[in-house]
């Protein structure tokens, strides 16, 4: 399952934070996030947290500003 998250208003500096969460995958290191801009170019300024969970049901979260 993949879930997109975003805040409804911008920070005081005008930036938005958007995120993506996926769950229900295994093994823990089998998934990585890839962010693209409107021209399908790779973006590298994002955070990818380590997977958490157990017994073949892992969750992973990534976010960027």
Automatic annotation (TrEMBL):
Domain of life: Eukaryota
Gene3D superfamilies cross-referenced by the UniProt entry: Immunoglobulins (2.60.40.10)
Protein name: Ig-like domain-containing protein
């Amino acid at each position: 399952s993949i879930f997109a998250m975003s805040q409804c208003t911008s920070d005081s500096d005008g930036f938005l934070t958007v995120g993506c969460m996926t769950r229900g995958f295994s093994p823990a290191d089998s998934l990585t996030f890839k962010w693209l801009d409107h021209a399908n170019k790779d973006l590298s300024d994002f955070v990818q947290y380590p997977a958490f969970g157990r017994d073949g049901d892992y969750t992973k979260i990534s976010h960027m500003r």
